[in-house]
Amino acid sequence: MVKHIGIVACSSEGAALCYRTICLEGTEYLGRHAYPEVTMHNYPLSEYMKYIVADDWEGVANLMVSSAEKLARIGADFVICPDNTIHQAFDLVVERSPLPWLHIAEEVAREAANKGFKKLGILGTRYLVESPVYPDKLKAAGIDYVLPELEERERMNDIIFDELVNGIFLDESRNYFVEVIERLKEKGCDAVVLGCTEIPLIVTPEVSPLPTLDSTRILARAALRKAVKED
User: Quick one: 88 and 180 in the same domain?
Assistant: First the structure.
């Protein structure tokens, strides 16, 4: 029995990439044109942002739990959230959620360990990069990490919220991400976490100076494995 995947969406571009990955790659497990049942629910990004900016993670958790409750009522068996930043509320969510969840950073850490990476650069929103979301999971997996400099975090944050979440992908912004990754490489990183679910839409493996850990697709693939009971 293939499980029904619930997606708690936040920003549209990252959630769309996650959904599309599940549908396209589901055929590898289930055959031509086949993939698990998927249901997505989202509150507007603006609703999340008012709590994120206020550092109110209880407010973020309330939205995530509400989405999970709606997904449970429609029949989802478990939940994923293709948004790294709001995983800061994860511990508040799972204790109240009617459904089990996969943790995006945990799945990325597992993938990094499987590939033998030892030191990761972390890209994402300023809220994500300055949070314990990735450091905690990477430490648990025995993996070191490096954060971009403050100026780099701020510039990436602006690109993400002014451009990427709105479906705007500029060469200038792609080049900036590549420059940041190059500097992380110089600091000894052997791979980089694309820790905003929109970054894979602008930074591809072909342009990155380091191997990329695409958090969006890693999460989608983990959900597929769970749905078809391969884990």
Answer: no
